[in-house]
Amino acid sequence: MKFLKLVVFGLIVFFASATQAQVSVHVNIGSPPQWGPAGYSDVRYYYLPYVDAYYDVHTSMFIYFEGRSWVRRSYLPSRYKNFDLYDGYKVVMKDYHGEAPYYKHREYRTLYPKRYRGPAQRTIAQRPKRGDENQRSYRQSNQANSGRGSVIDKNAIRGDKNYNRRGDEKTNIKHDNDKKEKIDRVRVKG
């Protein structure tokens, strides 16, 4: 009976230690973004002169003036939706007041005007590759046919992603090295 208790106790200890080893999780909170300037891992704020906003590394939030107050958002205002964070210049903030990097905003705005480009900067990581022509994003491929009607293959069948169920008549446009050839009307039987 003692032997059985020792075996059970040994198994419990063994599985408990194995389970504990699997629960180890590494969380890296407050690390600089991939588009941040290299060599400043201990900095809290960046000032982005082109968009007139700050970036808080610890909270991963942008801070900008909207309406009558400063707001913290995880995104930039919509007017800057196409701004390239990898290419835009980032001023490393060393002189700020607590949780408010905008404390001396007028001074920063004067020192670093919208088109300010200081010394050359390297980012922490390279800009993500956009992929080749066959790997366009969903948004690009979805807008590629915008306003031209249905474009399908002659061999389109039900269940095919190019098959349009809205009508019987489909338009097939052939492209050959940027030349549009004649447009064929194809009747698809349903």
Please describe what this structure looks like.
It is a single chain. This protein is α+β, with helices and mostly antiparallel strands and 190 residues long. The protein folds into two domains: 30-125, no CATH class; 148-190, no CATH class. 18% of the residues lie in helices and 18% in strands. It has three helices and nine strands; from the N terminus they run αβββββααββββ. It has a five-stranded antiparallel beta sheet, with no helix packed on it. The chain has a two-stranded antiparallel sheet with strand order 6-9. Strands 7-8 form a two-stranded antiparallel ribbon. Residues 21-27, 132-156 and 167-190 have low confidence and may be disordered.
**Rg from C-alpha positions?**
29 Å
Which runs of at least 5 residues are low in confidence (pLDDT < 50)? 21-27, 132-156, 167-190
Helix and strand composition category? alpha+beta
Tally of strands? 9
**How many angstroms does the end-to-end distance come to?**
77 Å
Counted by DSSP, the helix tally is 3
Beta-strand percentage range:
15-25%
Order of helices and strands: HEEEEEHHEEEE
Shape: elongated
Report the helical percentage. 10-25%
Largest sheet: 5 strands, antiparallel
Number of structural units classed as domains:
2
Q: What is the residue-averaged pLDDT?
A: 71
| Widest beta sheet: strand line-up | 4-3-2-1-5
Short key terms for the protein model shown above:
190 residues; alpha+beta; 2 domains; five-stranded antiparallel sheet; two-stranded antiparallel sheet; 3 helices; 18% helix; elongated
